[in-house]
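I am still getting used to backbone structure tokens and would like to learn alongside you. Label the sequence line and the structure token line clearly, so we can match residues to local backbone shapes. Would you write everything just below, so we can both look at the same thing?
***
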Amino acid sequence: MERYLRKYGDAALIAELTKTVNAHGEARALFNAEVADSLAQIVEAAERYIKNESARLIATLERLEAKVPEFRELGLGDVEERLVAVVRESEVVIEKLRARLDEMREGRAAHLTLDEVFDVIKELNELWDIADRFVRFYSSLYSDLTPLFLMAT
């Protein structure tokens, strides 16, 4: 009888432990799904920001270059080339992040780093800073030369 109770007790313990382990598996799957959804929102926001701001920056650079073609030789051309590279890189990074998110949802991956996408955003913001300097330079040229144009007319 004692042996039977011991076996039954072990079976009950094993059943309880199995249930606990299975509950953890379910909790982990739920956690991964929730985190993947939250990270997907961040990735989508980053993608929107990169697309919108790079399009606005391209338009700004084109307008500046059309008005003052010399700016191209002063570095505006380099900014345009870097911007094209940043946009291409961002597409690759976003695609990789989406693939990683799919792996998280399927339970094949447990982590995801957003460093690459924020590096792209940092680069884009640096390009905006350079464009800002060009705009301020153009503004100061215009304001410094305006009295000369007024005197000539």
Notes: Residues 2-152 form one domain. Residues 64 and 135 are 8 Å apart (CA to CA).
